[in-house]
Design brief:
Strands 1, 2, 3, 4, 5, 6, 7, 8 and 9 form a 9-stranded mixed beta sheet that branches. This protein has helices at about 15-25, 45-50, 65-75, 95-105, 130, 175-180, 190-200, 225-245, 250-270, 275-290; strands spanning about 5-10, 35-40, 55-60, 85-90, 90-95, 115-120, 160, 170, 205-215. It is α/β, with parallel strands linked by helices. The protein has 10 helices and 9 strands.
């Protein structure tokens, strides 16, 4: 029998955690083990304790950091854990999510990583401008020549990909024994999933399972944090391509300038979008590349 372990990293989201655990508790195929790594300022063990019928093991991790919390979960694994799913705390699983996942990984036994489909993920339409700027590559889940991860769309068919989201993803235990999350991506961990799954996909097959599905009720970045996010968007990207050494830096800079100009154009045409803040952050990130300070660890938190 294949075992399924869930690893949930959370911080200051007791309501979201309760909703996620509720959706797990009504699965037609229950998980064999659940590891919760809580980085909350005010620990949420009381929420976890509301689900005594779930096999939850609870740990606090301070100071909080998404890659660090994920690595703590990995350190708790045993030889009895066959597949481990990292779930964001703001997910809601369809009731047959784990049942359909198990059928898929048994059928596709040569896969090393599987992403579950996010129903309410934005279904980006093809854009020749984004393709020209090396920001997208259909059908999604692939890397462009600039190292930009093309968006993963909701899919009705299974797809073999080059990267998968960090918070809706299952890995074979053997992968997690060989790979760890890079804690340079401190804080919320933007781009840490791209880095991790890129490294794995160089030597292993990963795919999106269309029948295992969930909803992601994403928390938007606060207005005052958009400049920091824009900066991290550039520096995290630069760190990733510098580390991997698989992408031409001229193509990378071309795409980064393209992202910045898109944010500028949207910010000027729709001031309420606050995209001008993202543009200013992008410029700060590009300046750090020019001054050779982009690889200095800074981190980003929402």
């Amino acid at each position: 029998m294949t075992t399924i372990t869930l690893a949930i990293c959370t911080k200051d989201r007791p309501v979201d955690m309760k909703t996620l655990l509720s959706s797990i508790s009504i699965q037609t195929r229950l998980p064999d083990r659940i590891i919760v790594a809580d980085g909350s300022d005010h620990p949420i063990k009381d929420v976890v304790d509301e689900f005594p019928n779930l096999p939850i093991e609870y740990f606090t991790v301070r100071p909080p950091s998404l890659p660090k919390q994920r690595n703590v979960c990995i350190s708790k694994l045993t030889s009895n854990d066959d597949w481990i799913g990292f779930l964001d705390d703001d997910l809601v699983l369809e009731d047959k999510c784990l049942e359909n996942l198990e059928k898929f990984i048994i059928k596709e036994s040569n896969l090393s990583g599987v992403g579950i489909t996010i129903n309410n993920q934005v279904d980006l339409k093809r854009s020749l401008i984004r393709e020209f700027l090396l920001l997208d590559k259909l059908p999604g889940g692939l890397f462009t020549k600039s190292g930009c991860p093309s968006a993963i769309r909701p899919s009705k068919v299974d797809l073999e990909l080059e990267w998968i989201y960090g918070g809706a993803t299952f890995w074979k235990r053997e992968i997690l024994e060989s790979y760890k999350y890079d804690e340079w991506f401190d804080g919320t961990g933007y781009y840490e999933d791209v880095d991790f799954s890129f490294r794995v996909s160089r030597e292993n097959r990963i795919a999106l399972c269309s029948s295992s599905r969930c909803f992601h009720y994403h928390h938007p970045v606060r207005k005052e944090r958009l400049i920091a996010l824009g900066e991290w968007q550039i520096t995290g990207w630069w760190y990733f391509i510098s580390k991997s050494r698989n992408f031409n830096r001229l193509f990378v800079l071309w795409s980064m300038i393209g992202v910045s100009l898109i944010n500028l154009a949207i910010g000027l045409s729709r001031p309420k979008s606050n995209r001008l803040r993202s543009f200013l952050g992008n410029i700060k990130g590009l300046f750090r590349i020019l001054t050779g300070t982009a690889l200095t660890k800074t981190g980003f938190s929402k």
